[in-house]
Amino acid sequence: MSARLRIPASARAALAAATAAGLIGTGLVLAEPAAAAGDALTAQYRTSASGATADQSEPWLQLTNTGTTTVALSGTTLRYYFKSDGPSVSYRFACSWAVKGCGNITGTFGTLANPTATADRYLEIGFTAGAGSLAPGQSTGDMQLRFYRSDWQTLTQSDDYSFSGSQTSYANWTKVTVQKNGALIWGTAPAGNNPTSSPSPSPSGSTSTPPVDPNAPALFDDFAYGSSSDAAIQQHGWTVKSGQGGPGVPGATWSPQDITFVGTGSATVMNMRLTTDGTAAGTRETEIQTTARKFKNGTYAARVKFNDTPTGGPDGDHVNQTFFTFTPLNAPMDPNYSEQDFEYLPNGGWGEQGNIMYETSWETYNPDPWNAVNAHGEQRQSYDGWHDLLLTVDNSAITYWIDGQVVATHGEPYLPETPQWIDFNHWLIDLNGQTSSTPRSYNEQVDWVYFVKDQVLTPAQVSSKVAGYRSAGTTFTDTVPGS
Length: 483
Fold this sequence. Notes:
Layout: H1 9-12, E1 20-24, E2 41-47, E3 53-54, E4 59-65, E5 71-72, E6 76-82, E7 91-98, E8 105-111, E9 121-127, E10 133-134, E11 143-149, E12 155-156, E13 171-173, E14 176-180, E15 183-186, E16 218-221, H2 231-235, E17 238-240, E18 253-254, E19 259-262, E20 269-276, E21 284-290, E22 298-306, E23 319-326, E24 339-345, E25 356-367, E26 370-379, E27 385-393, E28 398-402, E29 405-410, E30 421-428, E31 440-453, H3 459-471, E32 476-478
C-alpha cells in the first residue's frame, strides 16, 4: 500500500512549447486589450483527448506574453467554455503536469449568464503568486489540464465551444479567453458572455501564523528503538511490513530485518534499506506504518534523509523513497479513498529520467482499466540529504512544504474523507533502471515523525514543538484518539 500508482508517463511528459503562428478559426474577432499599456497575452490550445466523447476532457493550454511589459501571472486567468451534459451534472478539475508546477495552478468552474448552443459553463484557470511572471516573449509552457464528470460518466465534448478535436498541436486559439484582473484582453467569449469578474481562486494555503493549541492531540516519535523486532515498536502503534505484495516489483520481499536503528535516545535514526541484485527474488524492500487509522485533518511532518546513490554497486535503479498518509481502496473508484504523498525518485521512473520529487494528492483511482483522479506538484532536482517534510490538511486545502517552502497546494476534490494511516516505505518501481546482477543497497533514513490533530502549523512551529519534545527527553508520545 502506498502511492504506487502514477499518471502514465505519456500524460506527464513535457511537450515542446512551440507556438504556431497565426490565428486558428475564422470569423473570430479579438477583444481590444483592456489591461495596462503594453500588456498582451495570447492563449495556445491543444487537446490530448480528441474524441467526440471521452472519460475526461483534456484542454492543454499555454499562455504567451506577446507584449512589451512583464506580466504577473497572479491575477491572470484563462477561460475554457463548454456545454454541460445536463443542468445537474457537476465537474471536477485536475492538473496532470505543468512547467509552472500544478501547485501554482488553480481551476474553478462557473456558469454563463447567457447560455448558448455550445456553452453554458466555463473552466477558469488561475495562478498563485508562486507561478511568477512572464517577461516579453516568454510562455508558461505546458499546462496539461483535464476535467471530468463528478459521477465518472463519459462526457460529450463535441458540442463544446472551446473544443477542437483536430487541434492536436499548440496554436493560438481565440475560443479560449484571457483576462487580467477580470478584464478581457484576448479571445472571444460565447455571444453575450464577455468576462467581467473572476470566481474566487482555489485555496493556495495560508501565509499567516495560526494559533497553536498546546493541548491538541499529537503523535511524536523519535524512533528510539533497538531493532525492528523491539516490542516497543508494536506497543507504540507501528506495524513493520513483511512478506510479499505491492507496491513495486512482483515477487520482491518486504524485509523487517532491513529496518535498523542507529544511535541512542533522541539521536537515534531509523534506517530503511532497499537491496536488489536486479531480480525480483533478490529484491528486499522496507515499510513501516501506523497500526491505527486515525489521522485526518492536521499537520503531518517528518525529517527524512534521501539518498541518490547506493552504498555500493552500480547506480540507476528506479528507487522510490516516501513519506505519506493514506486510506485503503476498497473498490475501484472508491469515493472514500485518499492519499497524500511525498515521493522521491532519485533515478527517475514512470518515464522520468532523473531526480524528481512528487507531492501527490489522490481522490481515487481504478487500477484496471486505469483511471487516476489526482493532482501533483513536482520538482526536478536532487534531494540527496536531510529534509524537513510537512503537509497540512484542513477543510479547504492540502499544502505541502519542503524545508520551509510551499511546493504544492491542492483543494477539492482531493481532501481526505476518512481517517488515514501514516506510512514510510522504500521500494523499487521496476527492474528497468539497472539490470546488473551485482547486489546494491540504498538507504532512506527518518529522524522523527510528528502529527497534531486539527491544527495547521507552520514549519517554524513544528520545529519548535519537536525541539520541545527533545529538550524534555520525550522520545515518544501519542494522545491522538482512535478512529
